[in-house]
Design goal:
The complex is a heterodimer of chains A (192) and B (402). With 192 residues, chain A is an alpha/beta fold. Chain A contains seven helices and five strands. The chains are: A alpha/beta (192), B alpha/beta (402). At the A-B interface, helix 3 and helix 4 of A face helix 3 of B.
C-alpha cells in the first residue's frame, strides 16, 4: 500500500512516518504542500493520502482529485463513512485522509488508527515543548528581577527571591508577573 | 446559555457572525458563540458535516454541492439565512491587466466590454493565465465563469483555474504562482495595497444582488433544535442590521482586524464595508454602490430561486445532469420557511413569496410583503439575462446557444 503524507511540519511528518514504518508499511512518501505538490502526488498514484485537517492546501488537493485524469479512481474522505467513532477521533486529532475508492476497509483502518495516535502524540509533544519553553522564559525573567533586587537593595539571592515571593502572595499575583513589573519599572527608571 | 460553535473563514463577510458575538446580540438571545477560525473551505465543510461545529459560514454553492453529494461525503445541509450579498472582486497582475481598458472605472462599470477585453488579453498573454478561485463550488467561480463565457471564453479550456484558500491568494501572486484571483474581501484590497495587482471586475457589477455566503447547518440538527435556531437567526439578523449601518463601519473594521478574526489592518477591511475601493495601488478609491449588503432589502432572506440559479449553473457547467429530484433538493437547501418562522415575530418585513424571477429589477421596487414595506434593489445580471425558476431548462439552453 502506497501512503503519501502531505505535511509542512517536518517533525509531525517524521513522527507519523516512523510509526507507519514500525507497523510494517514501507512505501511511504512525504510531500510538502508547496506549489506543484498535487502533480507530484498524481505521479505517485498513492492508495492513501494523509494530511493535516486544518491545512489550507486541502482545497487545492481536492480540486485536483476532482479534475485529475491521471487518477482514474475516485477518492473518498475517510475509511468508512459509517464508522462515526473513528471519524470523530480523526477530526479531533486533526487528521484528514483521502483513500482510493475500493480499498478494503480492513486495510485502511489500521493506517487511520495509527495516524490518529501519532497526530495526538505529536500534539502532546508540541504542548509539552511549549510548556517547557514558557517555564524556561519565566525562570529567566525571575532571575533578572532577582539580580535587580540584589544590586539595588543589596540583598542576597535567597532574600531577593523571598521578597518577590512575598510580594506576589500579598498581591495575589504570580511571581513571574511581579518580576515582569519590576523589570519594566526598573528600565523606566533607567536601571538595567 | 446555549453554547454554539460556528466555523468561519477569515473574510470580511464573516462580519455578521463576529458582530453577533462581540456586540452581544448572540448573548442577548441566550447563545454563547464559539467562532472557530478555519483556513480552508474543505475543513469548514468537514467540521460541519462531521459535527465538530453546529453551523458554518459557507459558500452558498458549496452548501448545495455537499447536499447533492458533489463534494466528498454527501450530507443534507440547510441554509436558513444568508450572511451577505456580493463582496467579491477579481484581481489580476499588472502585466495581464495592461492589455485591458486603461480606464479603471470603466473596466469595472462596463463588465460586458471588460469581458471581451479580457478574452483578448488571454490571447495576448504569453501563456494560459492561471486564475485562483477559492473553490470549484464558490459563488465567485460561478461569477467568473458567467462573466467570461459571455465573451466566448471557455473557462475550463482558456484559463488554468487553480484552487487556493482566499487568505493565500496574495502570497501566491507574490510568488508568481497565479496571475490573478477572484475572492472575497479583504483579499483583493490586500493584493492592491501591496501593489501585486489591480481589481478588474467586481461581483456586484456582474450580478447586482449576487448570492454569497450562507449560514449552513446540518438539516437534521436544525430540525431537532428549532428553538436555538430561531434565537440564532434573530441574533444574526440584528447583527446584520448593525453591520449595514454606516455609523458602525469603523468599529466593525477594528473588530475584524483582530488576529482571531480576519487579521488584516482595518484600512484594508474598510473599502468593502464603505464601497470605496482602491482599484490600483496609489490611485484614488472609486465608489462602488452596493458593493456588499448584509441586511437591507431583506438581504438575509434565502430565496429558493437563488438556490435554483446556483443549480442552473451547476448543470450548465456539466457538474450535474439536469434532474428533477436534484433540482428540488437544491431549492430546499435554502430554508425560507425557517427564516420566516424565526423572524416573522421580530417584525422584519417578510417577502410574500419564496421564489422570484432573478435579474428582472432595474430599479428599486416595492414588493408584496408581510409586516411593513419591503423594497428590493436592482438585481440585474450585466448581460440582462433573466432567470425564471419555472423555466430553468430554457434558461440553461440559452447559454448553449451563446
Amino acid at each position: 500500500m502506497r501512503i503519501v503524507i502531505v505535511d509542512d511540519s517536518g517533525l509531525r511528518a517524521t513522527v507519523l512516518e516512523e510509526g507507519l514504518r514500525e507497523a510494517g508499511y514501507d512505501d511511504i512518501h512525504v510531500v510538502p504542500p508547496q506549489s506543484g505538490f498535487v502533480a507530484r502526488i498524481e505521479r505517485m498514484a498513492p492508495d492513501v493520502v494523509l494530511m493535516d485537517l486544518g491545512s489550507p492546501s486541502r482545497d487545492t488537493l481536492e480540486e485536483m482529485l476532482t479534475v485529475s485524469r491521471a487518477l482514474a479512481r475516485p477518492i473518498a474522505m475517510f475509511v468508512d463513512q459509517s464508522d462515526e467513532v473513528m471519524i470523530g477521533a480523526a477530526i479531533d486529532a486533526g487528521v484528514s485522509a483521502y483513500v482510493v475508492d475500493g480499498l478494503r476497509k480492513e486495510r485502511v483502518k489500521p493506517v487511520m488508527e495509527l495516524a490518529i495516535r501519532r497526530f495526538n502524540a505529536f500534539a502532546r509533544m508540541q504542548t509539552e515543548l511549549d510548556e517547557a519553553k514558557t517555564a524556561l522564559a519565566e525562570r529567566k525573567t525571575i532571575d533578572r528581577a532577582k539580580t535587580i533586587l540584589m544590586n539595588t537593595r543589596n540583598l542576597s539571592e535567597a532574600d531577593a527571591y523571598a521578597l518577590l515571593r512575598s510580594t506576589a502572595m500579598n498581591q495575589n499575583r504570580r511571581i513571574v508577573e511581579v518580576a515582569e513589573a519590576l523589570i519594566t519599572a526598573s528600565s523606566l527608571l533607567g536601571g538595567q | 446559555m446555549t453554547p454554539l460553535s460556528i466555523a468561519f473563514l477569515p473574510l470580511t463577510d464573516s462580519a455578521v457572525l463576529v458582530a453577533a458575538h462581540e456586540l452581544g446580540f448572540a448573548r442577548d438571545a441566550g447563545i454563547e458563540l464559539n467562532l472557530v477560525r478555519t483556513e480552508s473551505w474543505a475543513t469548514v465543510r468537514d467540521r460541519l458535516v462531521y459535527g465538530q461545529v453546529e453551523a458554518a459560514h459557507l459558500l452558498a454553492p458549496l452548501a448545495i454541492a455537499v447536499t447533492l453529494g458533489l463534494s466528498q461525503h454527501p450530507a443534507a445541509i440547510a441554509a436558513p439565512i444568508k450572511l451577505n450579498l456580493n463582496g467579491n472582486a477579481l484581481t489580476m497582475s499588472t502585466s495581464f491587466a495592461a492589455a485591458l481598458d486603461p480606464d479603471l472605472e470603466r473596466r469595472v462599470n462596463d463588465p460586458l466590454a471588460a469581458a471581451h477585453d479580457f478574452a483578448q488579453a488571454i490571447g495576448l498573454y504569453h501563456r494560459k493565465p492561471v486564475v485562483g478561485i477559492v473553490h470549484r463550488f464558490s459563488s465567485h467561480a460561478l461569477m467568473l465563469r458567467y462573466w467570461l463565457a459571455s465573451a466566448g471564453v471557455d473557462p475550463d479550456r482558456d484559463l488554468a483555474l487553480r484552487v487556493l484558500p482566499p487568505s493565500l491568494m496574495a502570497g501566491a501572486m507574490r510568488a508568481g504562482e497565479i496571475d490573478g484571483f477572484v475572492a472575497g474581501e479583504p483579499w483583493s484590497s490586500v493584493a492592491v495595497a501591496e501593489g501585486l495587482g489591480e481589481i478588474v471586475a467586481i461581483g456586484s457589477r456582474i450580478w447586482q444582488r449576487g448570492v454569497e455566503k450562507v449560514l449552513a447547518m446540518r438539516a437534521d440538527w436544525m430540525e431537532a433544535n428549532a428553538d436555538v435556531v430561531d434565537r440564532l437567526l434573530r441574533a444574526l439578523s440584528a447583527a446584520a442590521a448593525w453591520c449595514d449601518d454606516a455609523a458602525n463601519r469603523e468599529q466593525l473594521a477594528l473588530l475584524l482586524e483582530r488576529p482571531d478574526y480576519v487579521g488584516q489592518p482595518a484600512d484594508r477591511l474598510l473599502p468593502a464595508l464603505t464601497g470605496r475601493m482602491m482599484l490600483r495601488h496609489g490611485e484614488a478609491p472609486v465608489d462602488i454602490a452596493d458593493f456588499m449588503l448584509f441586511h437591507r432589502e431583506a438581504a438575509g432572506f434565502p430565496w429558493r430561486s437563488q438556490a435554483l440559479w446556483i443549480y442552473s449553473q451547476m448543470v450548465r457547467w456539466k457538474w450535474l445532469k439536469p434532474d428533477e429530484k436534484a433540482e428540488r433538493t437544491a431549492a430546499e437547501v435554502f430554508r425560507s420557511d425557517v427564516y420566516r418562522r424565526a423572524l416573522a415575530e421580530a417584525g422584519m418585513p417578510m417577502p410574500g413569496a419564496s421564489m422570484k424571477v432573478e435579474g428582472a429589477l432595474t430599479a428599486p421596487t416595492a414588493v408584496g410583503s408581510h409586516h411593513g414595506a419591503l423594497t428590493l434593489g436592482p438585481d440585474r445580471f450585466f448581460d440582462d439575462r433573466v432567470f425564471d425558476p419555472s423555466a430553468i431548462d430554457r434558461y440553461i439552453a440559452g447559454f448553449a446557444a451563446q
